[in-house]
């Protein structure tokens, strides 16, 4: 056993480090700082977006919203992760970043077989892993990155970005599957930090906001897509996603708030319908919505699942919603079904829309989408 100083950790913290494995948990030490999540939003929120910008178009809209929040001084995007195996997904991320003049934002990619049509024999993956906007946007719009082969694995980027940020400063907006975050929690020390993943999260992350689940339970839909999907619609269960969800929800440090934005919240707030009138044709956010009509004839507008998560991550819930506190999210690790179990306060909560606020919330998102980028190329 060796006692060592930890770079990036306050000097009074001394860690016991074994030859293999992680230092002992920072959970107790982090708790001494109190609840540093949720309310401290006087400075621009340091934001990491973790997106499945692959199938549904709401991820494109959410990243566009995040960039406008940065234009307005409400957020600073410090990283974007892609969480499916579709290699071209990060290409769409790069298109959006480039449009808003921010090619410097680090991008990380999930690298694996999950939802990766390359070499797959799965008919669903071959037909539906890429939404109708993916390849046209990459072809028609300039961007320095076209494929996940050009960027590091998401966990490496997570660890590097988090290690570089001030303690308790980062809000992660999880907009899709939870595989990257599960791997982050399970990661070990590396060149970026001697802390294991869970301790690095406890030290650097202020809050995790997750688009996922349905509240108070997912009984009406069996499981919500981000928590248990990723394979043929209506399957009793899918590989990988239920386990990832349970790993993150159950294993997240209890000193770091985790807030859920459920299916029912975003489904009733429709946005993007004004872009045909307010945005030029060369706007990739508008183009993505119009291309998605091939999958959904009613689009645009489109439900605002991921945009609401992003807006809350940067600005909080005061103007349009409230947080249901007390209890925890019970996850079925076999199929991804979820149920909220009411009880004493924990680090978990879920968002609810105030009565009569749906239109105002939708208008707020549309205003962001309709405003020209501050530094477009």
Side by side, the strands of the main sheet go 5-4-3-6-7-8-14-11
Structural class: alpha/beta
**Count of runs of 4 or more consecutive helical residues:** 15
How big a fraction of the residues is strand? Answer: 15-25%
Number of strands: 14
User: Whole-number radius of gyration?
Assistant: 20 Å
Question: What does this molecule look like?
Answer:
Strands 5-4-3-6-7-8-14-11 form an eight-stranded mixed beta sheet, with helices on both faces. Strands 1-2 form a two-stranded antiparallel sheet. By secondary structure, it is of the alpha/beta class. The protein has helices at 27-31, 58-71, 89-99, 123-128, 134-140, 154-164, 179-186, 197-204, 225-228, 241-251, 263-267, 275-278, 284-291, 305-315, 358-370, and strands at residues 2-4, 15-17, 45-51, 75-82, 107-109, 170-174, 205-211, 258-261, 270-271, 302-303, 321-325, 328-331, 338-341, 348-353. The N and C termini lie far apart (53 Å).
Keywords:
single chain, 377 residues, alpha/beta, eight-stranded mixed sheet, two-stranded antiparallel sheet, 15 helices, globular, disordered N terminus
